[in-house]
Design a protein that fits this description.
Blueprint: H1 16-24, E1 31-36, H2 43-57, E2 61-66, H3 71-84, H4 93-109, E3 116-120, E4 137-140, H5 150-160, E5 165-168, E6 181-183, H6 200-210, E7 218-222, H7 231-242, E8 248-253, H8 262-273, E9 279-283, H9 289-298, E10 301-304, H10 313-320, E11 325-328, H11 331-336, E12 343-346, H12 349-361, H13 363-380, H14 383-401
The structure holds uridine-5'-diphosphate.
Uridine-5'-diphosphate binds near residues 223, 224, 253, 311 and 317.
């Protein structure tokens, strides 16, 4: 097998491989350490998995480490995640203790030696206490930070300001801090199992295996079972749509190792969907990339009705597959969906129902929006662009140190 990098054609890598190589050449051999809190489940793990081999192809020496936490730790960090996305949090001494004890134990356990360190999200943020030597440390935040709980942000900020730089997914997530802050949009890998082209036979066989009818329009939301993704709102919208239009709803999702709330939300969804044979709630393992690929390709309309969203890679994935997307007017969804061009932005159950119905009833509009979506992703949200952004930032940090 040749390099992964060489498998991106001109369509997926506008600006050619050579440009990336020129940018990477002065960084050859750079030991680049990434730390996050899960290898599977959720967008961060998804992206890191695909970025590692590309950095390697470009001559860097990337390494990816994971925070090993206890259930109590992940309960606490999930509440931190919710607080950063705007939910009130009473930060108790016990929570701080659990958080710091596990984070510090991990920082002591792991080899943090590197030429540049990228720490993802709050779970490993305190690792910065252990920084040694001149290597730059970057805090990469994937969360919607536009309206965080103030008290919690003050606490977390005390760690973040010790980094050399912070990266956010959207401009409105930047905070008042003395360190430089950068914008890096997330991205998808068109060559991953989740996004590779797929034969119609495989799509059909997958639907059959999952018990989803292939001969009716499919409305799909793929998401962890998380309240901010509003799966219950999707069920309500679908019930309104179905009064007038034939369709089935598929809610596909699984848990993530660092998300303990999933089971409770799944139960709420099941109870909201009870008694309706046209609502398919699919609990998928974290390895179900081809299944998600098939579902996204089979869908007529893809929904991502989140009320908060760091970015929303599921929107990107659906657009890349030429699907029109109805998404919550929030965070990264509003960056990806150009309202009326490649999808619709909505802020209520009724709004979602209206737009889903419009797309179900107008196949030409749906197709045209899907084409626009794919082009938008091609230009802005493919992994090759993220790699470039990282290389530019690493170059900047290196020069600054000199
Ligand atoms: N995903 C998955 N299985 C699931 C739910 C989601 O593989 O059961 C994937 C999804 O296809 C996407 C990522 O996880 O690639 C979710 O990223 P997003 O930014 O939409 O949301 P996050 O989970 O990071 O909040």
């Amino acid at each position: 097998m040749g390099r992964l990098l060489d498998q991106y054609g001109e369509e997926m890598l506008p600006g050619r491989t050579e440009r990336l190589e020129r940018l990477a050449a002065p960084l050859a051999g750079l030991r680049l350490l990434h730390v996050n809190s899960t290898k599977v489940g959720g967008g961060v793990a998804e992206m890191l998995q695909r970025l590692m081999p590309l950095f390697e192809d470009l001559g860097l020496r990337p390494r990816w480490e994971i925070v090993e936490g206890t259930p109590a730790f992940f309960d606490v960090t999930k509440s931190f995640h919710n607080a950063l996305q705007g939910k009130n949090l009473v930060l108790t001494a016990a929570m701080r203790e659990t958080y710091l004890a596990v984070a510090r134990a991990n920082a002591a356990r792991l080899d943090l030696s590197a030429d540049a360190v990228v720490i993802h999200d709050p779970q490993p943020a305190p690792f910065v206490e252990k920084r040694e030597g001149p290597a730059p440390w970057i805090w990469r935040c994937h969360i919607d930070l536009s309206r965080p709980d103030r008290e919690f942000w003050e606490f977390l900020r005390s760690f973040v300001v010790r980094y050399d730089a912070a990266i956010f997914s959207l401009p409105q997530f930047a905070r008042r801090m003395a360190i430089p802050q950068f914008l890096v949009w997330p991205s998808i890998d068109p060559l991953s199992d989740k996004n590779l082209p797929m034969a119609p036979e495989e799509v059909e066989a997958t639907l059959r295996r999952l018990g989803v009818p292939a001969d009716r329009p499919i409305v799909l939301q793929v998401s962890r079972f998380d309240r901010f993704k509003d799966p219950v709102g999707v069920v309500k919208a679908f019930r309104l749509v179905r009064r007038r239009t034939d369709a089935v709803l598929v809610l596909a999702g699984g848990g993530a190792d660092d998300d303990p709330e999933g089971a409770a939300v799944l139960a709420e969804v099941r109870s909201a969907a009870e008694g309706d044979p046209d609502i398919h709630v699919l609990l998928l393992p974290p390895t179900a990339h081809r299944e998600i690929n098939a579902l996204q390709r089979a869908a007529t309309v893809v929904v991502q009705k989140s009320t908060r969203e760091g970015f929303g890679l599921t929107v990107t994935e659906a657009m890349w597959k030429g699907k029109p997307v109805v998404g919550g007017l929030t965070g990264g969804i509003a960056t990806q969906i150009v309202h009326g061009l490649n999808g619709f932005l909505v802020s209520s159950v009724e709004g979602a129902a209206f737009r889903i119905q419009t797309l179900l009833e107008n196949p030409d509009l749906a197709r045209q929006m899907g084409e626009e979506g794919r082009e938008h992703v091609r230009r802005n949200f493919l992994i090759t662009r993220s790699v470039r952004d990282y290389l530019v930032l690493l170059t900047w940090l290196k020069e600054r140190r000199r």
